[in-house]
Design goal:
Helix content: 25-40%
Strand content: 5-15%
Distance between the termini: 64 Å
Order of helices and strands: HEHHEHEHEEHEEHEEEHHHEEHEEEH
CATH topology of the largest domain: Aspartate Aminotransferase, domain 2
Shape: globular
Number of domains: 2
Number of helices: 12
Bound molecules: pyridoxal-5'-phosphate
Length: 410
């Protein structure tokens, strides 16, 4: 008899974005004439940078010739890409890394989902609320939680509310946590973490021998030079933090798939008796067993996104998205809404008017303006009463949204 992993059955049937897709599909069936614009799912819309396209074309050419053909690449990624990452993303921020601390992958979602495998089943997990659902759901699947409560939270997980009252920076957990997920710039609130806030977290992790899983998928969107882009800008972070970065939003790779995870050699977890174990070799062991890296063509494209020309082109695309973020923030603020984020992150976190629930506002906006947003309650109990607007829509679609909401307000 094949038994099931019962932990999977604790999860609701639908992932948040499948639920949104279903509700939008139902709306479309009833209103086939409606031109729906999505500010919902955080997917990019602008084409790849020309330097990336050129590098990928060259890589395809190489693959077409016997002398320059590439088969399986190294599990941990090609050195040319790891070098480019260290040089572009870390050295200018004063961070030194060794090549074997950088692991190339096909996405941060998978890395965030998979990394928990190297930790024991009894680790206590702490997450911000609202939260990117992947951190929670993968720990549910791994059996690190109890049942799902009515408010959508799981027994055994520590939820750290992020509200306007604490500037969306969670307080330290009141009880001991072993694995702490932090995401900055934050999805969904658009908040960033100051150096001081990150120092507090690093000190706490060192004191408690816990590990911070730092999701920096949106680091490229930080405009304020005082805000750390990498957690390794904080002293001592290499002993207690893993960092996840992705080319999805920094170079438009959501459909190409490339990311990387930094697992420093100083990072330690512990045996039950308290003796230390280095995490880096275990992650290498996991990846080399279950993963065969990312295509040569993709890695050449990613390296080009970090080259001088590609990087400038990607910055222009990021600026396009951030102009949209600014326009959306201003327009909704002028209409009397309270908005957060949207300055160092491509997300705007907006309070629903008159205490409306997140899903009620979602349906109202869809019905009245044919605009899709993401209900904040889908990211956690503390997200109730908020919606997330994504700035990744095309500028023309942002024009459309602004026209429609201004029309509605008349
Ligand atoms: C906070 C956060 N982390 C990770 C990811 C996943 O990125 P990737 O496309 O690299 O899997 C996303 C994607 O939306 C995200 O919002």
């Amino acid at each position: 008899m094949a038994t099931i992993n019962e932990h999977f059955l604790k999860l609701p049937a639908n992932y948040l974005f499948s639920e949104i897709r279903k509700r939008v599909r139902d709306f479309r069936t009833n209103h086939p004439e409606a031109h729906i614009i999505s500010l919902g799912i955080g997917d990019v819309t602008q084409p790849l940078a020309p330097a990336v396209v050129a590098a990928m074309k060259r890589a395809v050419e190489e693959m077409s010739k016997q002398e320059t053909f590439h088969g399986y690449g190294p599990w941990e990624g090609y050195n040319f890409l790891r070098e480019a990452i260290i040089k572009r993303d870390f050295n200018p921020r004063g961070v030194e890394l060794d090549l074997d601390e950088v692991f190339i992958s096909d996405g941060s979602k998978c890395d965030l989902a998979n990394l928990q495998e190297v930790f024991g089943p009894d680790n206590v997990v702490a997450v911000a609320d609202p939260v990117f659902p992947v951190y929670v759901d993968t720990n549910v699947m791994a059996g690190r939680t109890g049942e799902r409560r009515e408010n959508g939270q799981y027994e055994g997980i520590i939820y750290m509310p992020c509200t306007p009252g604490n500037d969306f920076t969670p307080e330290l957990p009141g009880t001991h946590a072993d694995l702490v997920y932090l995401c900055y710039p934050n999805n969904p609130t658009g908040a960033v973490a100051t150096k001081e806030a990150l120092e507090t977290w690093i000190n706490h992790a060192r004191e408690h021998r816990s590990i911070i899983l730092f999701d920096a998928a949106y680091a490229a969107y930080i405009a304020d030079p005082a805000i750390p882009q990498s957690i390794y800008e904080i002293e001592g972070a290499k002993e207690v933090a893993v960092e996840f970065r992705s080319f999805s939003k920094s170079a438009g790779f959501t459909g190409i798939r490339c990311a990387y995870t930094v697992v420093p050699k100083d990072l330690q977890a512990y045996h039950g008796d308290g003796s230390p174990v280095a995490v880096n070799p275990l992650w290498f062991r996991r990846q080399s067993t279950k993963f065969n890296s990312v295509s040569y063509i993709t890695q050449r494209g990613a390296a080009a996104a970090l080259g001088n020309e590609g990087w400038k082109q990607c910055q222009q695309t990021i600026a396009t998205y951030m102009r949209s973020a600014d326009r959306l923030c201003k327009a909704f603020t002028n209409l009397g809404y309270t908005v957060y984020g949207g300055t160092d992150a491509p997300y705007i976190w907006m309070e629903t008017p008159d205490g409306q629930s997140s899903w009620d506002f979602f349906h109202w906006l869809l019905d009245k303006a044919h605009v899709v947003c993401t209900p904040g309650s889908g990211f956690g109990a503390a997200g109730e009463g908020f919606v997330r607007l994504s700035a990744f829509a095309t500028p023309a679609n942002v024009d459309g949204v602004l026209e429609r909401i201004e029309e509605l307000a008349r």
